[in-house]
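Re-run with default settings, no changes from the original entry. Doing this only to confirm the output is reproducible before filing.
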Amino acid sequence: MNEFIDITVNGINHSVACTKTDSLLEILRDQLDLLGAKEGCGYGECGACTVIMNGQAVTACTVRGKAKLDGSEIKTIEGLADGDGNLHPLQTAFIEAGAIQCGFCTCGFIMRLYSFFEEQPNASRDEILNAMSKNLCRCTGYEAIWEAVIQYQQQLLTR
């Protein structure tokens, strides 16, 4: 049975239909037409659907139902750019480092790392690698992603 929930996505309030089995990923993609988060595994293992929910990185495919979603504040990759359409510096770093090969995992990586660096801009190499381990990439071999991360962290630390 559908019920309506209120969520805020990228600063915009929405009232959307939701059953107790609907995932946040389904709502974002099917009802709000936000296609940045991808369904890679459907079990939260690959990280391709990572978004920020109430300030924390989550896999959108695993967050289900009214009880968890109603009143939530969500940020997706579509909401990272500023109001003038300028990409977030982390997005730019990914592009400049060539860390976007097929692009399937890119949005999930960026959202997880964005959330991580909001809390830990001075993170150590091991802490960054641990955060990155929650997302999978089948194309880049992670070297270009690592280069983007280092470039972005250097920008954070020189501000």
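The chain is about 35% helix and 15% strand. The longest strand covers residues 3-9.
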